[in-house]
Amino acid sequence: MSKKRGFDIDFPGTADGTYTGGQSSGARRGPMASAINENAEALRERAAAERAIREENDRLAHEHVRLKRAGLITDLVPLDAIRTDKLTRDRSLAPDPEIGELKDSIREIGLSNPIRVEPDGDGFELVQGFRRLTAFRELYAETGDEAFARIPAGLVASGEALEGLYRRMVDENLVRRGVSFAEMAQLALNFARDPGTAAEDVEEAVAMLYASAGRQKRSYIRHFATLLDAIGDRLRYPEAIPRKLGLDLVRQIGAEEGFAERLRAALEAAPEGDAEAELARLQAALGPEPEPRPERKPERRTGQGDADSAAKTVLRCTVPAGTVRCAARDGKVELQMERDFSSVDRHRLEAAVAAFMAALDS
User: Fold this and answer.
1) Does the first or last residue of the chain, that is N or C, have fewer Cβ atoms within 10 Å of its Cβ?
2) Closest by alpha carbon to 225, among 265, 184, 171?
3) What pTM was computed for the model?
C-alpha cells in the first residue's frame, strides 16, 4: 500500500503561526473572493438605485394626482374623443355671431386658455369650453389641418359631483359675461329637472348654480325661468330678449289671466323671422312702449352759451343683443344698454365707431 502524500495549508496569522481569522496584511485575495466582493458591492449599489427610483416615482405619482385634482394637467385631446352630453350647456344652440373672431384668434396665436374635460370611460366629457371646442371643430372641418384635430385640454379628476361640474361651467361664463339671462334660466330649469342633481325646484337650482352671482342677478334669472317655463317652447330667439322686456313679460303673465296662452298662440302663428322680428312681437303683446319722458333741461344761467339750449334727440332701438337707448345733441351721442362695453376689445370698439360715423356720413 502506497503512502499518501501530504501537503501543507498556510493559514493567515501572526508571525508565530497563530491563526487570526483574517487575511494577513499584504496577502493577495483570491480571484473568487474578489468576484464575490465586487458582486455584493454591485448588488448594494443596484438596491440603493432601485430604492431611489421607487421614491422618485412615488413622489411624481403623488404630484401628478395633486395636479390632476387641481385641473392643472393639460394634454392634447382628440376632438372625436370629447362628448358634450353629460352636462346641459348654458349656451344657446343658435349660431354664435362671434365664433368667427375666436377662430381667427386661434389661427393666429393658438388657444390661450385650454378647455376642461373629465376622463370618462374611453373618452372625455366636456366641463368647460363649449365655444372653444366648437371653434376647433369648425376649423378642422373647414381646413382638414391636423393641427386642429386635437385641442389643449385640462384634465379634471374623475368622480367630482355633478353639481361641482355645473358650477365650474357656470362660474366661467359668469366671469366672461357673455351668457344671456334666458340661457342662464334655461340651464336652471334643466338642472332642476335632472334627476341626477339635488335641486328640487328652480329656486334651489338658481341658488346652487349661481351662488357666485349677486342677489339681484339671481332674481332676474328666476324671473326669466318663469318666462321660459310659460312660453319658452314657442320662442326661437330667447337669448335675444333684453332684461327689461323679459321682466315686463313676466309681470304681465302674473297680472293678466290668459296672457301667457295668448302670447304662445301669437308666437306659434307668426311666420319665421329674425330675432328683431320676434322681439317686436313680444313688445307688441305688451302694448306700445311708453315714450320716454323728456329730460328736464336745467335752467339757463346767466352767461351760459347757446350750446346748453341746443336741441336733443332721444330714441330707442331694438337689436338682437337688447334695447339700445340713444341720446343725441350738438357734439355728443350717448348709447346706453345692459352691456359692459369696457370688456369689448379696443380694436373692435374703434372699428364700430368708424363704421357708425361712416354710416352717418353716407
Assistant:
1) N
2) 184
3) 0.47
